[in-house]
Amino acid sequence: MSRTRAFRLGTFVVASVAVLSACSSHTAGTPSTSGTGSPSASGPSRSAPPVPGALPTDALIANPCNGLSASQITTVGLAAPGAESQSDTGPTCKWRSAAFQLNVVYISPMTVNKNGLSDIYATKGNFAYFEPTTVDGYPGVYASPTDNRSGGDCQLWVGVSDELSVSVSAQIGEGPNKTNPCPATGRVATAMIDHLQGRE
């Protein structure tokens, strides 16, 4: 199995497990707009930190390649344009590195989940590593069902509203970040938050 297929399969498995724990009262494909209200008794507890303010995500969900501005793509070292695709977990945008052909970054809104980052927290036992963080003031967690960070893979989940989390993942096959990919993933996630806030 190729590294790309294995890495994206990990994303699919995590999101699929999370949706099984999500509140069953939501209609598929219809995100909740309840803000920070109390969770349903049938849903997972909101164990993730609350989002300080829901970000506008319509454009991101419509096409995750809207997650970065043209100038940010250049600043973080990616090559435009990104390539949009669809999967069972939601839409995805993939960018290649401008300098290293083997290096790729994905931004994937997890529209299949309806409880945002709390769906990730609810399944934390399925992860090989689980390290909470913040991204420009927004709650996040570095987590993946397999730990291949030393081999160049890093996945970061960011809560952009209490109903939506975004997976930002990097596969670094060459270059100086290969053995320490998470800071690069964090830079992309920070750029995405800045863009969603209208600051870039």
Automatic annotation (TrEMBL):
Q: Which UniProt keywords apply?
A: Signal
Q: Compositional bias of type Low complexity: which residue ranges? A: 26-46
Q: Which domain of life is it from?
A: Bacteria
Signal sequence interval, chain numbering: 1-28
In its keyword annotation, does this UniProt entry include Signal?
yes
One Pfam family name is DUF3558
Chain spans, region Disordered: 26-56
Origin species: Amycolatopsis acididurans
- Xref: PROSITE patterns: PROKAR_LIPOPROTEIN
Q: What is the protein named?
A: DUF3558 domain-containing protein
InterPro entries attached here?
DUF3558
